[in-house]
Design goal:
single chain; alpha+beta; six-stranded mixed beta sheet; 14 helices; about 30% helix; elongated; binds adenosine-5'-triphosphate
Length: about 575
């Protein structure tokens, strides 16, 4: 009672609070005010501060108390601050011994999932560092735990700067997500016991199954408005002789019993309709949760680890970082790009979050979130399931499986996406370099990843630069590729090649705008003029003179030199 709210028999595990603190519900429980079946064992026990009952406290071994600042039931982590210092400063490994409540969460995680196969054990290191490092966001000092200059690091915090530090201790094989240190407190995560997610998804609560002592770690769903043992009426009653009677046979039933039966039936239908309403509500809540997840959200690094299941599923490697698959919730898969620590000064990150984060375009991947947690940065994108175009371009077999019509559609989609970005002038967009890159992409689509082509048999030259070779070939009005089929495909290939060659013109001013590129790709290949030699730095004026200021069909716009 008091600060914790009324607790009666049926509502014994009802969510509780200490003052304005975070909601306390399964797997956490309020020790001294709730039976232990309300939580998932002693490791999850919380208490309200004894004097004011305003603070939510968690027991940390060897510390006096941790003050809980938040509990995130969706991403399943708890953050807390220390109210006083650890007592055993010289034996750090004791933090991780088996009596730790947080480690007991993690044992559960390890029992019930395959994370352990994913190799999620980390070594933690404690370093003594020069005090000049103290201000660096790269290092997370251990509050209360260390003497000045002692830092706790996990394996991926090790940076060249640490060469100035002396290693004090190694705490081996700690589950990576077991304890996570953030500048503003400590975070521990847990994995829910099996079955609890389903309870919450249907608007119910979760608790330990107290009726089966052999399965004491099993959970059950319950509804605080309805004791789990109550059964809906069947619509029929039995007389003491055993024959079945309809409740409508009122003349044979005493009026009190009839009234009671009517009440039970009415209650049942009222309950059923409120239950169905609740289910609808849960559906709406889930939709809103997913919808919220589709707006760029800031995540902590611990959340990114959780979302990607500790970086279990690598999708690929790019110039700026490594990309992992993850899930925001059951229905929302994402791709998280963990940015390299040492590339860039932050401008690219700001540009990406500030621009792509506000963009909704069918041809531009959506940014659903980002992480800037100290120097750890990540970008969270919607997951694109159809594999990278790169893989299709580099394999003739895969390319053939797509077909040239599809490749043309893809090229047009990309061009429209870039054109959209150019028109809105989102952030720092380098128009002419983008056009050049797009042109190279088109030529790669035509010729595969090969930059050079072996043309020994043709003219005794060992290798020539592919774009140059294809330009010369096109210029001689030859067919552009031996493997190319006649007909529609040949036309598409010729179109992609001509547009590509226009885009890679030596002088940026000679390159078309993306708007023009889109028009060219949408138009007929026969209306396209042959581009000047992209590799000549001397033909700029002559070409322009020869072709006038309209390099393409008369329908297309003029590109000004200053563009
Ligand atoms: N949203 C996504 N959905 C699915 N897979 C993705 C997604 N984003 C990236 N990937 C995968 O990760 C790989 C690396 O992507 P990333 O964007 O980092 O590199 P990139 O395309 O080479 O470009 P850059 O490093 O220049 O930005 C891609 O090739 C792709 O396989």
């Amino acid at each position: 009672a008091g600060a914790y709210g009324h607790v009666d028999q049926d509502d014994e595990c009802k969510p509780a609070k200490c003052g304005q603190g975070p909601e306390i519900r399964f797997p956490f429980w309020l020790k001294d005010h709730q039976p232990d079946r309300c939580g998932y064992g002693p490791g999850f026990a919380l208490t309200c501060s004894p004097t004011t009952a305003n603070e939510t406290l968690v027991d940390i071994p060897f510390s006096v108390k941790g003050v809980v600042t938040s509990i995130d039931y969706l991403f399943r982590y708890i953050t807390y601050e220390f109210s006083s210092c650890f007592q055993h400063q010289n034996n750090l490994s004791l933090i991780f011994n088996s009596t730790s409540p947080f480690l007991s969460f993690e044992y559960m995680l390890y029992d019930s999932s395959d994370y352990v196969q994913g190799g999620t054990l980390c070594d933690y290191y404690v370093f003594s560092c020069p005090s000049s490092l103290a201000d660096s966001s790269d290092y997370v000092p251990l509050p209360c735990l260390s003497r000045p200059g002692h830092y706790l690091m996990d394996w991926d915090y090790i940076t060249p700067n640490l060469l100035n530090c002396t290693k004090m201790y190694t705490i081996p094989s700690v589950p990576c997500i077991c304890i996570w240190h953030l500048p503003d407190g400590h975070t521990a995560s847990w994995d829910e016991p099996r079955g609890c997610r389903e309870c919450e998804a249907t608007g119910k609560y979760c608790r330990l199954n107290s009726t089966n002592s052999s399965k004491k770690h099993e959970t059950e769903c319950y509804d605080i408005h309805k004791p789990p043992t109550a059964k809906p009426p069947t619509g029929e009653t039995k007389s003491k002789h055993g024959e079945t009677k309809s409740p409508l046979v009122t003349d044979l039933v005493p009026p009190g019993i009839f009234l009671f039966a009517v009440l039970v039936i009415a209650t049942y239908f009222a309950y059923r309709s409120s239950y169905l309403k609740k289910e609808d509500q849960v559906k709406v809540e889930r939709f809103l949760e997913n919808y919220r997840a589709l707006k760029p959200t800031r995540y902590t690094y611990a959340e990114i680890k959780k979302i990607t299941q500790n970086f279990k599923d690598k999708l690929g490697q790019g110039g700026y970082g490594t990309v992992y698959k993850g899930e925001l919730s059951i229905d929302v898969p994402i791709a998280a790009k963990i940015l390299n620590n040492f590339t860039g000064n932050g401008d690219d990150f700001i540009n990406e979050v500030g621009t792509i984060g506000t963009i909704h375009h069918i041809n531009v991947v959506r940014l659903v979130g980002y992480c800037a947690d100290g120097y750890k940065k990540a970008l969270v994108y919607e997951y694109l399931p159809n594999d990278s175009l790169d893989k299709f371009i580099s394999s003739d077999h895969k390319k053939a499986s797509l077909g040239w019509e599809k490749l043309q559609d893809i090229a047009l989609g990309i061009a429209k996406g870039i054109e959209y970005l150019h028109q809105g002038n989102f952030g720092n967009v380098s128009h002419k370099s983008d056009v050049y890159s797009f042109g190279m992409l088109l030529l790669e689509m035509v010729g595969g990843r090969k930059k050079n082509i072996d043309v020994r048999e043709e003219n005794n030259t060992e290798e020539v630069y592919f774009p140059e070779w294809i330009y010369n070939r096109l210029n001689r009005e030859e067919s552009n590729d031996n493997e190319v089929e006649e007909g529609g495909d040949a036309k598409i290939i010729k179109k992609l090649t001509i547009v590509g060659l226009w885009c890679i013109q030596w002088y940026p001013g000679d390159r078309p705008s993306m708007k023009t590129v889109v028009q060219m790709l949408e138009g007929d290949e026969e209306t396209l003029a042959m581009p000047p030699n992209p590799f000549s730095t001397t033909n700029q004026k002559t070409t322009r003179g020869k072709m006038g200021e309209r390099p393409f069909s008369s329908m297309l716009e003029i590109i000004s030199e200053s563009d």
